[in-house]
Amino acid sequence: MTHHLPAATAPAGPYAVDVSPKSAGWGYSSLRVLELPPGGTHTFDTDDSEWIVLPLSGGCTVTADDDFGHDTFELTGRTGVFDGVTDFAYVPRDARATVASAGGGRFALTGARCTRRLPARYGPASDVPVELRGTGNCSRQVNNFGAAAPPEAVRDRASSATG
């Protein structure tokens, strides 16, 4: 099995990229890239996974609907991935999520299977740890959006992986 997907080899439905546990042959993680035109919207069910909606370029509104309520988050976004850290939305399992963008944009939807449902929430850019890793010409900046997700989500995934 290969872990390299050349450009344009992993689209599915409305997604420019759609990698799921089933398509990749692993247990938990998913990645989708959603491209919306100005005024575009997309709705998806989270099923057994929690999701982070992360603007790659552009801003959007994220709505999470479920039996517990209705949450809406305005994501300012950014002009591109090299233009700094962005805000994001955490959408729990067993919800219906809608991403809408007045100006259009490109959005990463990162998912992880989980067993526990947590509340939807907004993640401000200021809460995202910016880390420097490596040294010299091998150094890089990592914007650790996963570390800014609800801490309970990280513990849930870790306990699911070990138990």
Structural features:
single chain; 163 residues; mainly beta; Jelly Rolls; nine-stranded antiparallel sheet; two-stranded antiparallel ribbon; 2 helices
- Give helix % range: under 10%
Q: Report the sheet-strand fraction.
A: over 45%
**Gap from first CA to last CA:** 25 Å
What's the β-strand tally? Answer: 11
Number of domains: 1
Low-confidence blocks of residues: 157-163
Shape from CA axes? globular
What is the C-alpha radius of gyration, as a whole number of Å?
A: 16 Å
CATH superfamily: Jelly Rolls
Named CATH topology: Jelly Rolls
Identify the CATH class: Mainly Beta
Described by strand count, sense and barrel closure, the largest sheet is: 9 strands, antiparallel
CATH architecture: Sandwich
Compressed to H and E, one letter per element, the order equals EHEEEEEEEEEEH
Total number of helical segments?
A: 2
Structural class: mainly beta
Mean pLDDT: 87
InterPro entries: Deoxy-glucuronate_isom_IolB, KduI/IolB_isomerase, RmlC-like_jellyroll, RmlC_Cupin_sf
GO biological process, one term: inositol catabolic process
GO molecular function: glucuronate isomerase activity
Keywords: Isomerase
Characterise this structure:
The protein is mostly beta strands. The strands form two sheets. Strands 1, 2, 3, 4, 5, 6, 7, 8 and 9 form a nine-stranded antiparallel beta sheet that branches. The chain has a two-stranded antiparallel sheet with strand order 10-11. It contains two helices and eleven strands. A hairpin with a 2-residue loop joins strand 4 (49-66) and strand 5. 10% of the residues lie in helices and 47% in strands. It has one domain (15-162): Sandwich (Jelly Rolls), CATH 2.60.120. Pfam families: KduI. This is 5-deoxy-glucuronate isomerase.
